């Protein structure tokens, strides 16, 4: 089966190796997960959103989210904030730490983010949004990108205007989630609405929202005219999804799912330490067992076991025999 799409030269110029990227997801796209997804051929991986001021002020938990790791090629770090000074300073710090790209978050719909006039709240104040973009672009030499939504609500789908101004200010790529902020994650992503933003700029655009397999990726590209796609929740429990979609394949459960899950578990424990790592790993182990069709009893056993017992129980839970029970 042919690849999803030829690699757009504009994406290649930014260092992307395929037209399929991993979206930033809070509590999910940490360094262990990004490393794993990268190993399966994602064209770009983006960190969890990091708060710009807290990053500069050296809060350990925030800096952990921005940890680059050994696989720095194709690694972008996403920052959020409402003050130009802290946005610029965090971008400088992240470039010094090895980030190959800085992504600005203007799409997060969470109330704790928009209530602080960050994330998608910036869609209601383009002048202020541009002041942040200009500060970040001026602060670093690496490419700066922007992730956002169609608008604040259905009465203000004005992102095409913001996109034009962002391009003029030096933004090198856009990622557009095909929903408004007020939709949160309800309903269906409107990929066709992204087309107006694609037409408004000359920089590449990635379509995001509800892209979980090859069919949805192709439909999103066709409807939007985007240069590529960004996979979010479709990669949970399926770290090979981005690479598979890029290659023109559906992200089916690999034969070595158990090996992948065990490798991921050990990487999480190594990165966070035994106790915190065990808690962080639970959601990922749950997604792997969901993908394998693990029975509920075995699933509970894995998720409540002490860390040292998890590898053996997980191997049993992901075995063909367990799924047939």
Brief synopsis:
Helices cover 46% and strands 12% of the residues. By secondary structure, the chain is an alpha/beta fold. The chain has two domains: 9-246, Alpha-Beta Barrel (TIM Barrel); 257-324.
Question: What does this molecule look like?
Answer:
Catalyzes the synthesis of 5,6-dihydrouridine (D), a modified base found in the D-loop of most tRNAs, via the reduction of the C5-C6 double bond in target uridines. This is tRNA-dihydrouridine synthase. With 325 residues, the chain is of the alpha/beta class. 46% of the residues lie in helices and 12% in strands. The chain has an eight-stranded parallel beta barrel with strand order 1-2-4-5-6-7-8-9, surrounded by six helices.
Could you give the topology of this structure?
Elements: H1 9-13, E1 20-22, H2 31-39, E2 44-46, E3 50-51, H3 52-56, H4 60-65, E4 75-80, H5 84-96, E5 101-106, H6 111-114, H7 126-139, E6 144-149, H8 159-169, E7 173-177, H9 191-200, E8 205-208, H10 214-224, E9 228-231, H11 241-246, H12 257-272, H13 274-292, H14 296-304, H15 310-317, H16 320-324
Parallel strand pairs: 1-2, 1-9, 2-4, 3-4, 4-5, 5-6, 6-7, 7-8, 8-9
């Amino acid at each position: 089966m042919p690849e999803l799409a030829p690699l757009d030269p504009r994406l290649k110029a930014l260092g992307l190796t395929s037209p399929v990227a991993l979206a930033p997801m809070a509590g999910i796209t940490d360094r262990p997960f990004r490393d794993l997804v990268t190993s399966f051929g994602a064209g770009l991986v983006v960190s969890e959103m990091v708060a710009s001021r807290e990053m500069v002020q050296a809060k350990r938990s925030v800096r952990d989210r921005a940890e680059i790791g050994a696989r720095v090629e194709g690694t972008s770090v996403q920052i959020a904030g409402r003050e130009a000074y802290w946005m610029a300073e965090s971008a400088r710090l992240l470039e010094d730490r090895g980030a190959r790209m800085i992504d600005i978050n203007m799409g997060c719909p969470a109330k704790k983010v928009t209530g602080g006039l960050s994330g998608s709240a910036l869609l209601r104040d383009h002048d202020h949004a541009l002041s942040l973009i200009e500060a970040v672009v001026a602060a670093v030499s690496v490419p700066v990108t922007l992730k956002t939504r169609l608008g604040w609500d259905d009465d203000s789908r004005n992102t095409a205007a913001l996109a034009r101004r962002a391009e003029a200010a030096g933004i090198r790529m856009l990622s557009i989630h095909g929903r408004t902020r007020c939709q949160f994650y309800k309903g269906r992503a409107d990929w066709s609405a992204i087309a107006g933003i694609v037409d408004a700029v000359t920089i590449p655009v990635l379509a995001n929202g509800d892209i979980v397999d090859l069919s949805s990726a192709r439909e999103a590209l066709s409807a939007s005219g985007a240069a590529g796609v960004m996979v979010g929740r479709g990669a949970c429990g399926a770290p090979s999804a981005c690479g598979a979609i890029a290659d023109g394949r559906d992200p089916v459960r690999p034969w070595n799912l158990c090996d992948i899950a065990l490798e991921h578990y050990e990487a999480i424990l190594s990165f966070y330490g035994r106790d915190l790592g065990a808690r962080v790993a639970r959601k990922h182990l749950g997604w792997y067992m969901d993908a394998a069709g693990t029975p509920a009893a075995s699933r509970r056993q894995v998720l409540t076991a002490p860390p040292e017992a998890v590898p053996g129980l997980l191997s049993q839970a992901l075995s063909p025999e367990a799924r047939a029970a």
